[in-house]
Prior knowledge:
Layout: E1 4-6, H1 9-22, E2 35-41, E3 44-52, E4 58-65, H2 71-98, H3 105-116, E5 124-127, H4 129-138, E6 141-143, E7 151-156, H5 169-175, E8 181-184, E9 195-198, E10 204-211, E11 217-220, E12 225-231, E13 241-246, E14 251-256, H6 259-273, H7 278-298, H8 300-308, H9 315-327, H10 334-344
Parallel strand pairs: 7-10, 10-12
Antiparallel strand pairs: 1-6, 2-3, 3-4, 5-7, 8-9, 9-10, 11-12, 13-14
Amino acid sequence: MIAFTGFDAAFQTAYADLAERALTQSRLLLSSPGTIITQEKNGGSYLYWRVYDAEGQRRDHYIGSRDHVETAGKLAEITACIVEGRSFAEGSLMLRKQGYAAADNSAAITLATLFNAGVFKQGAMLVGTHAFGALINSLGVRLSTRYFTEDIDIARYDRIELAIRLEEGFIGLLKQSGLPFIEVPALDVRKPSTSFRVRGRKLTVDLLAPGDERYRSVPIAELGAYATGLPYLDYLFEEPVFTVVLGRDHVIPVRTPNAARFCLHKLIVATLRLTQMPQKAEKDLTQAAVLAAVLSEQFPGALDEAVQHIPPTALRRVAQSAVRAQALLPERYAAAHDFLTELAALQRN
């Protein structure tokens, strides 16, 4: 059975305040906030900005001579970045200690890199487990067991209007994080890669696009890359929301599907994975069950609206998964059980 609880009102308020501030950010650091240090050389004092990068390596960035006229302006600008960065890091730490879902540092810096490039402003959204974590945080839900993933799933729904010019395609953009990303060869050597991994680690970024059950590769011209075409992915694209992902040093604004459609899409996807990827199918059902339980109590109208737009060819899949998801929920979630029972009846219509 799934177990989860709601956060205290004070922490939900703290989360909402932190997220509201984070959504106003225009650019994120790709390091820790850092500190200002002074080095004495040849009778002079020189200022440096000391940070730790995505791989935990210390980096000292030269600011200038302490008595140089231009140093004061640079110092003030960097100090403001440090203060803001520490504020977000402290806010995130407080919430993570309470059990809020979060990304590890490498994933957070990768997401920050994508945010800085404008990936989430137009044309793409975060899906998968990191999106689930962001959504349950916004709903004030704490899982009894920590959700975890090292996969970042980016779904492209329209042309991505980037804020920067890509010289080396999507792999070049990912490398701007400071992490050694490489392309992951497709199982079929005739197909282009749609997945990118950090060398020596499990952190993976997958590009996705609407497709069908042939899972064909789809060219993404503006990224100089390919995405895997997935069936029913376009169901997620209506009425997206902006929320945040918590990291160690970052609170990253992202675009995600709305929670109701995400819930129902997880039910669809679970049937597609049931035979070949049963563990992922179980995770899909768990996430759908949690969202169904929360939304049935907080926003039942949102679920009803999302049901009205399920693709007709997916109705049977939703009904089949609803039975399995229902079995994961304790009886006390009566509204969710009623909702899932109604979904299961779709199979007989």
